[in-house]
Amino acid sequence: MSIAPVAPVSNNGVSTTTFHDLPEETTAEIFSRLSVKDLIKSSSVNKAWYSLINSPSFFSSQIRKAVNFCDDNAVLIIPPFISHQNYCSLISADTSRVIEKFDIPFVTKSGSLKLIAQVDGMLLLTDLHIDYASRELYLWNPFVRRHRVLVSSCFKRLLDDRDKSYYVVGMGYDKGTDDYKVIRIVYVQDGKGKQFGP
């Protein structure tokens, strides 16, 4: 014999159900319809909501939703000098209307910025200045207002010597782990100027 769950009952005998009584799938569906600002506020309500909103599966579904509903004729304008303008603008290519502005949440050493790659709205940026370029990378998703600074400490000495090293940086989506990967390839010259030195 199975026992049906009993709905919570308030003092006046009327049955009440709170948001916390809903199944996780229903809660996730409700959260998926919220704006980014409301999601950020909701994630600070309690640990359960924080865990759900920050889970990789929910995060991926939000990115897929944003990509599916994205205007194909929209262009993201990234200023070359963030010391003069500290935001990016999403502009309609059809009407030149500003759809949304995104504050840039980090500062580069020279105050300049260059886009290296973008995947599903995730941007990989670096400093435009040749002395800093590709040393520190900035991974940023403006739609979910999240960023991470990726510092290249193990290659710092090599990257400082522009005459003895050459490097390329890229980013991609790994379907197996449902995550994004940043790859840096560093070529080092030997004493004779050959690219693959010791």
State the distance separating the first and last CA atoms. Answer: 73 Å
Total strand segments: 9
Mean pLDDT: 75
Kindly provide the radius of gyration, computed on alpha-carbon positions and rounded to a whole number of angstroms: 23 Å
Q: What's the oligomerization state? A: single chain
User: Helicity level, as a percent range?
Assistant: 10-25%
Strand ordering within the main sheet: 4-5-6-7
Q: How large a portion of the residues is in β-strands, by DSSP E? A: 25-35%
In brief:
By secondary structure, this protein is α+β, with helices and mostly antiparallel strands.
Fold and architecture overview:
The protein has 198 residues and is an alpha+beta fold. Helices cover 21% and strands 30% of the residues. It has 5 helices and 9 strands. A hairpin with a 4-residue loop joins strand 6 and strand 7. The longest helix has 13 residues, at 56-68. 10% of the residues are buried.
Give the helices and strands, then pairings.
Layout: H1 24-32, H2 36-42, H3 47-53, H4 56-68, E1 74-77, E2 87-92, E3 98-103, E4 114-119, E5 122-126, E6 136-141, E7 146-151, H5 156-160, E8 165-174, E9 179-188
Antiparallel strand pairs: 1-2, 2-3, 4-5, 5-6, 6-7, 8-9
Characteristic terms for this protein:
single chain, 198 residues, alpha+beta, four-stranded antiparallel beta sheet, three-stranded antiparallel beta sheet, 5 helices, 9 strands, 21% helix, disordered N terminus
